[in-house]
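Protocol step 4 of 6: structure prediction from sequence.
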Amino acid sequence: MMEDKAYALWLAANKGEEKCCLATIIQLETKEKYRPLRLCMTESGKIETTIDQADIIHALRPILFEKMQAHLGQSEMQEVILKNGNTIQVFVDMFIPKPKIIIFGAGHDAIPVAHFSHALGFETTIVDARETFNTVENFPNCVRIIAHPSSFTEKVPVSSFTYVIIMNHHIEKDRETLQFALQSPSPYVGVLGPRSRREKMLAQLKEDGVMFSSEILQKMHNPIGLDIGAETPEEIAISILSEIIAVQKGHQGGFLHDQHQIHRHTSTYEKVGKGITYVQGTN
């Protein structure tokens, strides 16, 4: 039996939490032995197929590419018209990894951020080397990683679906964490504190020979959060998470008052550096 490389790539992408599409041609039942006809495409550009007709592959590739550009992908049946005028029925499976939030710093103000993050459905991770702070009592329902900045690369996985919040309350730790986060695929790096603190950290990194392009710096958010007048730790947490939701959905975070359209979705996205910036569309 022919090896189903397309399905193997689909499983590997799912396991590795990489966005991908799998197209399966719907075939009529025959007396012949069934052979799945599939094409899988991942966000990184890998393609595997069990289809040997070039015209079908040529017709499916742009469909999968366009589907992966969509912010909200759904599995669905599609009718595909080939160049010769024939049509085929194709079922397209879509896998989008679940968004995650990583909070660097296990201080008291990180507790409500983690609480609301989990309540919103984000898989939430707390990273802090202080075992007396980074505890299950303070952060139930969270993944906890005990790690110093020197071991982040080894111990802290970050993908293009991971949103980073830096709140160590320690400028040296924040600077090292900022360097790690900006070099990661994360589309959002939020840094607690005033703008002057951000500029100081970036200047210190520059002195160490670490510089970032303007495109990479676009994913850095500081001061962090939406301007809602937040003062208490709980209000600040809501402000931060509201900004992350806005970035995730491709919105600006303004008032809905007098808006003609309440619900809008992003139709496409484009990569910025190693992250993702979503381009807003309307429905």
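Step 5 (inspection) to follow. Residues 5-95 form one domain.
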